[in-house]
Task: inverse folding
């Protein structure tokens, strides 16, 4: 094997390893949200790395009112809320940069709350209330 081919093979291996490392970094956490007995709200704290998104899954019924608020020390976190059918709720889509949403839920099922940083890493508190 020539020196040029060895360098090419080494670069290919390095590229594959780099992709593997970034693949292992994942896309944030995925967690099912449960309220403590007798409670209708919960506050969760976490940090999300730039480019990752944390996902929180919450079962709810049509007609319930859900309030979701995300705060970050550097005001650099936003949220989206996906309906059980995968569509985003009005005002809580990918382009809305929502931080506080209150809505009467249109259908029953699992809603997914997605939190990500708007710039850089974000340490956040997420408060979810359902009534």
Result:
């Amino acid at each position: 094997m020539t020196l040029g081919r060895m360098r090419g093979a080494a670069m290919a291996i390095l590229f594959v390893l780099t992709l593997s490392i970034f693949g292992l970094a994942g896309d944030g956490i995925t967690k099912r949200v449960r309220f403590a007995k007798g409670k209708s709200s919960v506050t969760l704290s976490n940090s999300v790395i730039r480019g990752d998104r944390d996902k929180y899954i919450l079962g709810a019924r049509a007609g319930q009112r859900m309030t979701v608020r995300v705060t970050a020390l550097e005001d650099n976190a936003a949220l989206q809320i996906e309906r059980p059918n995968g569509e985003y709720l009005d005002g809580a889509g990918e382009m809305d940069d929502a931080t506080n949403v209150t809505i009467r839920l249109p259908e029953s099922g699992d809603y997914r709350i997605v939190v990500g940083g708007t710039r850089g890493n974000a340490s956040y508190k997420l408060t979810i209330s359902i009534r």
In short: The chain has one domain: 27-130. Residues 8-25 have pLDDT under 50 and may be disordered.
